[in-house]
Amino acid sequence: MAQRSPDAPNQVVFFQELLQEKIEHKPHAARFFSYLVDELDLIFYAPLSMGAPPYTRRTLTAVILYAMYHGHYAAQKICKFAEDSIGAQWLLSGMGMPGYKTVERTIDALLNEADRFLSQIIGICEGLALIGRQRMYIDGTKVQANASKHKAMSYEHLINKINRQTNELEALFESIKPYIDEAEQISEEELKACIHEQAQRVHHILRQQHQQELRDKEQQVFNLDYEEAEKSQGLEEETLKTSSPLLNDVPTESFEQTVDLLNNIAFTHNRLHTMEQAKTTLEQKWKAEHGNQKIPEGKQINFTDTDSSIMVTKHHGVQQCYNHFAWVDDKAHIILGTHTSNNASDQLGLQPTLEHAENICGSLAGVQAGADAGFFSAHNIAVMQDKGIDFYGSYAVAKSPFAKDKFVYDTQADTYTCPEGHTLTRQKTKKSGRIDEYSNQEACLACPLSAQCTKAQDGIRKIDRDMEHDRLREEAKEKANTEQGKEILSQRKSVPEPVWGNIQVQDGWKQMHGRGMDNASREFKLHCVMHNIRKILKVYFNSVSYQETVHEKEHLFQDTA
Questions:
Q1: Which ranges carry the Transposase DDE domain (predicted)?
Q2: Between residues 6 and 479, the one the model is more confident about
Q3: What are φ and ψ of residue 182, in 5° steps?
C-alpha cells in the first residue's frame, strides 16, 4: 500500500480495525491490568444484592488502573481517556464506559481498601523477587494540600476576626430595620431569624445570576455563534421580591440598597459561621492532643482543609501541606510502608512508617536501614535498636565552632574537652538524674574566646548531657562515619529520592485532590500502589516467562455482573 500523502487528505487508508490485532499480538499494559485485577482479592468486587446490575467491577477496576498508569486520576479524565484509548476499549470489550459518577464511586471503593490493595501488590512483588529485604531507606516529601495558605488564620487573629464580624453583622441588622414595617411588632430574635432566612435566599439568587453572567461572558468570547440575549431587569426584580417578601414594601429608590444589605448580611453570616466552625475544630483537636493546655496564639488552622498544616517546602517556600513518608526497599525501589502526617517534623514519621511496613511485610529485624538527617533523633535510634534493625542516619553538623558537637566526650573519664583543649568536668545532676551538667569555671573565665562560646551572663559555658540519649546519638554518628555507613548513606539519594520524582512526574502529583487526613493518607497509598505496579510492569515487559504467565491467565469480563 502506498504511503499516505499529506497533500491528499481525502485518500482512503486501510487501518487495522480489530482491537485484538492492536493489542493481543504483543505485550501490552492493558493485557497486564486485565490479568492483575483477576489476581487481586478486593472486598468491593462482591456483587451487590440490591439495585440494578452494576458494571463488572473487575473490568471497571482494570480500566481505572490502566488510566492511572497513564497519569489520569480524576473520574472525568478517566472517562475521557477510556473513550480515546485503544487499550481501554480492549479492556471494555465493547461495553460502554459508565458515567463519571460510577467511576468516582469505584475509585472511592478502591481508596477505602488502600491498605489491602497495597498489601496484595507487595505480595506480588515479593513473589517476583523484587524485594531484597537486605537494605531499606525511609524518606519523606511535603505535598501541597487541596487548600490555599491564604485561607489559614492564627488562633488569636481568628478570635479577633470573629468579634469584628459579629459586630459588623449586628450593624447590618440595625441598618435594614428601617425597611421592615413590622420590625417593632416581633421579638428581636424572631426578626433576626426572618431577616437571615430571606437574606440567604437573596444571596443565593445573586450568586446564581453572577455565575450565569460569567458563563455568558465565556460564551461571548469563545463561541463565535453566540448571540447575547436581552437582559430583563424587571424579571430579576420580580425574582428577588418573590424570594424575599420584605422587598415588596421597599421603595423603588431604596430597592438596590436593600438588596445589597440582605446580600451582605448573608455573606457576613456565612463567613462568621465558617470561622466559628474552624475555631471549634481547632479547640477540639488541641484538647484531644494536649489536654487543658492553653492554645498558643500563633496556632493556625485552615478553613478549606482543617487537617493540613503550614510547612516550609524545599522548592516552593511556605505552603499548606501534608507530610508523606515511604519505606523503600533498595532492590527494585518497592514501597513497603507509608505514613501521612500534618506535622512538618520528619522525626515523628519514622516509627509509624516502619510499623506500617512491618504490618504488611512482617518483622524487618536484621535489615540495614538508612535515613537523612531529618530522621536523626535518639528516640528513632532507640526504636530501630528495639526492632533489631541496623540503622544508619545522616546527621546535621553545626556551623558554629563552639556548638555542643564540637565538645568531645570521654566515656572513661566522664569529661568533655572543649575546642580550646580545656577539660569540663561534671558539676551536678538534674532532672531526676537523667541530665548531667559539665563546666570549667576557671578555664572559661580565663579564655579569650569565652564571649563567642557562651551567652551566659557569668561567662561560663555549661554542657548538659542526657546520659542515655546523647550516648545513642554519639554511637549513631560514629556508625555513620564508618566505611559501611558512608556507603549506605551515599545510596540514599539514589533509592528513596527517585521514588518521589517518579510519582510526581508519571502521576502528575503536584497537589492533593482529597481533603482531610484520612483522604490524604489513602490518596498517597494509591500513588504508592501505582508506583509498585509500574515496577511489576517492568518485569512483564522484560520477561518472556512472565508474559506467558500473564497471557495464559488472561481473561476479559465481557458481561455485566
A1: 417-536
A2: 479
A3: -95, 20
Q: Which residues are bridge partners to 393 per DSSP?
A: 371
| Grid-cell match 497495597, residue found | 118
Are residues 110 and 304 in contact, defined by beta-carbon separation less than 8 angstroms?
no
What is the pairing mode between strands 423-430 and 415-417?
A: antiparallel
- Pairwise CA distance, residues 293 & 270, whole Å: 30
Contact 367, 135 (CB under 8 A): yes
Q: Is 222 exposed, middle or buried (0-12, 13-18, 19+ CB in 10 A)?
A: exposed
Amino acid at 320: Q
The answer to whether residue 557 scores a pLDDT higher than 70 is no
C-alpha 327/C-alpha 363 separation (Å) is: 14
User: By mean pLDDT, which of 47-56, 292-301, 305-314, 423-432 is the weakest?
Assistant: 47-56
Q: How far is CA 118 from CA 58, 530, 531, in A?
A: 17, 9, 10
- Count CA atoms closer than 13 A to 462's CA, side-chain side: 13
To the nearest whole number, what is the mean pLDDT of the chain? 87
* Dist CA 2 CA 500 (whole Å): 47
Amino acid at 403: A
Residue 349 DSSP code: G
Question: Mind listing the pLDDT tens digit for each residue in 231-244?
Answer: 555 547 788 888 88
> Residue 414 corresponds to which cell in the numbers above?
566522664
Terminal-to-terminal C-alpha distance of the chain: 44
Whether residue 479 has pLDDT greater than 80: yes
Q: Which residue has the cell 564540637?
A: 406
pLDDT above 70: residue 14 = no
Q: Which residues of 122-141 are buried (b: 16+ CB within 10 A; e: fewer)?
A: bebbeebebbeeebbbbbbb
Exposed/middle/buried for 321, CB within 10 Å: 0-12, 13-18, 19+?
A: buried
Q: Which three cell numbers stand for residue 70?
A: 497513564
Bridge partners, 325 (sequence order):
140, 339
Q: Are 526 and 110 in contact (CB under 8 A)?
A: yes
**Do β-strands 390-393 and 368-371 pair in parallel, antiparallel, or remain unpaired?**
parallel
Rounded mean pLDDT, 160-182: 86
pLDDT of residue 560: 39
* Pairwise pLDDT comparison (306 vs 94), residue with the higher score: 306
Question: What pLDDT is attached to residue 54?
Answer: 60
Closest among 508, 531, 147 to 338, alpha carbons compared: 531
| pLDDT at 182 exceeding the cut of 80 | no
Instruction: Compute the residue count for the chain.
Output: 561
Distance set, CA 412 to CA 268, 460, 463, 478 (Å) = 70, 24, 17, 17
- H helix runs in 113-248, sequence order: 114-127, 155-176, 188-222, 233-243
pLDDT at 50 over 60: no
Rounded Cα distance, 405 and 549, in Å: 57
- Angle at CA of residue 412, ends 408 and 416, nearest 5°: 25
**Residue 302 — φ and ψ, nearest 5°?**
-100, 135
Element holding 386 (H helix, E strand): helix 378-387
Instruction: Classify 251 as helix, strand or coil.
Output: coil
Tracing cell 572543649 back to the chain, one arrives at 418
Using CA atoms, how far apart are residues 18 and 315, in angstroms rounded to an integer?
Answer: 48
